[in-house]
What we know:
This protein is mainly α. Helices cover 51% and strands 2% of the residues.
Amino acid sequence: MSLEIQTFTAEEGLFYENYKLIELTCILSVQILREFIPASRFKLEGMRLMKLFLSLILSFSTISLSFGQADSTAVLKNTGQHIYAGVERCQVCHEADEIGNQFGVWQASKHAKAYQTLLSDEAAKIAKEKGLEKPANESPECLECHVTGYSDPKAEYGEKFEKEDGIGCESCHGAGEFFRKADIMCDIELAKANGLIIPVEEDCLRCHNERSPRYKPFDFKIFNEKIVHKLNPGYKCEGAEDEDEDW
Ligand code: HEC
Ligand code: HEC
Ligand code: HEC
Ligand code: HEC
């Protein structure tokens, strides 16, 4: 015996539920009508009835599909998505002084240089010590903590993604292809539902641990102070325009 398991997205689920409901109504109605219509006329009336039900089904499915779509930004584009958009996609909004220039803080931090570091003499020395076959900047053993998304088995990359950006915004805040959209970013809960992570100490420990060949004991408070990049307290989100889809 084989067991069939069907899985649905929320959209399909909604459609399927409505569809099942309509199907059930059809069967019931046909049976009730059978009681009242003489057998000889049943075929004719039955045809008319089927036509009516078919048009009902069509209109219902259109309604349920459009419900599904209205919902989709909130539910469907969830953290299951792993498309890393690239720092430039965040820079467009997060470089402005009014918002607090988080981009500028990041750019001046060591995280922005994490890939370049792998091209240094020091990195070559470490790679040699470890007996790596390839140079540090081509070795998964190093890229894992020095390039965004490298340790994410489901990672996909957007057009603007550059490995040269090292440890970018999305290393800590999650793959941003969906939450970066203006209509989503202004609502933090919606942004989280679309993959935004507000990082805590644990997220840093993924890389700041003893597997780092040049590990420096990690103290969250001290280290976090060095990269602090707050939103400007006077800043009000007004649902920024997102006309250019190609950001
Ligand atoms: C269309 C402009 C825009 C883009 C693009 C954008 N952001 Fe934002 N982001 C904002 C605005 C505006 C806010 C402030 C929202 C508010 O006031 O609650 C914000 C807030 C945030 C917050 C703080 C959330 C909170 O309330 O604590 C984080 C983290 C963040 N963005 C990360 C990113 C990352 C990472 C990217 C790139 C993948 C990105 N943003 C791209 C406009 C943008
Ligand atoms: C995906 C890996 C990764 C994550 C996550 C990460 N870091 Fe780092 N961090 C690095 C790497 C790699 C460097 C070294 C970059 C270099 O020098 O080229 C570094 C360097 C730093 C430095 C500079 C240290 C020094 O020697 O001056 C600070 C501060 C820092 N990280 C803070 C944090 C904090 C706080 C978090 C969590 C909120 C965090 N990092 C999360 C990879 C990471
Ligand atoms: C587990 C994550 C991790 C891995 C794997 C890793 N690094 Fe790093 N690397 C870091 C972090 C984090 C730092 C910042 C120093 C610290 O706090 O550990 C760093 C810093 C460095 C530095 C700068 C040291 C300094 O004193 O400024 C070099 C060079 C470096 N790594 C090279 C490498 C090479 C080469 C490899 C591969 C053999 C590698 N790293 C693998 C996380 C990692
Ligand atoms: C090394 C990890 C790391 C990187 C890289 C990083 N952030 Fe953050 N970000 C954090 C942490 C930690 C916080 C503080 C969360 C909190 O308030 O508890 C934060 C907070 C924020 C906030 C909200 C600040 C507030 O006042 O609420 C914004 C906006 C933000 N980041 C945007 C960005 C952008 C844009 C980039 C890239 C240019 C970026 N971050 C890169 C770790 C990171």
